[in-house]
Amino acid sequence: MALGVILTVLIIIITAFVVHKLLQEALDLLHIGVSVAGIIIAILLVMVVADAISFKRSFSSSDNLLAIKENESIVTAFVLKGSSSGANAGRAEKLSEAELSNLAKHIAAKDYKAALGENYKLVLLKKDAIEAAAQNGIMANGRNYSSSEAIEALETGNADVLKALVTKMTNSPSIFIPHYKKGNIYVYPESQMFKVIKYAPVFGMDAIKGVVERLGRVTGLKNEA
What we know:
By secondary structure, the chain is an alpha+beta fold. The chain is about 65% helix and about 15% strand.
């Protein structure tokens, strides 16, 4: 009887010891996993922030091709001239019918490199994204355009509305991020920042958005159309 009790106690002690060791090892592994994940996230954050700052600087100084899609068709497109374009800086040049047709063919074939040409970025905007950006109006030419008026103005080649729309959209992460994730906005080449926006969970984007906005204010690198 006494031997049985002793064996039972020994089994309980050994079991408790083994469970304790396993839990300790599991906690150690969890700690290592969390540490590694933290390092990876920190590295990724640094890369994204660096890419965001580079994008802010280069987008405003370079020529960019912006195309508007409706039902998978390209309805109009512009080359937005950057600050490095001399006398043409800030202008939005509407593509001719021939250029638009050629662009539409490249985009339909997903040949974005050919569509990009010599521009810094190709930006595809679906009307859902435009309507979201213009929901409370777009200020241009000294007046406030409703979403339908903004779209109509874009289709007729109103460069001022285009520049106001791009400025509002790129300066409004609450508009840009969800619509990029939905595919209503697409930027080519798709650098690290845009890949993270596409695949990262929304709560992760909030942190990145805050850091980028603060760095933008500190460095003075604000998007300009």
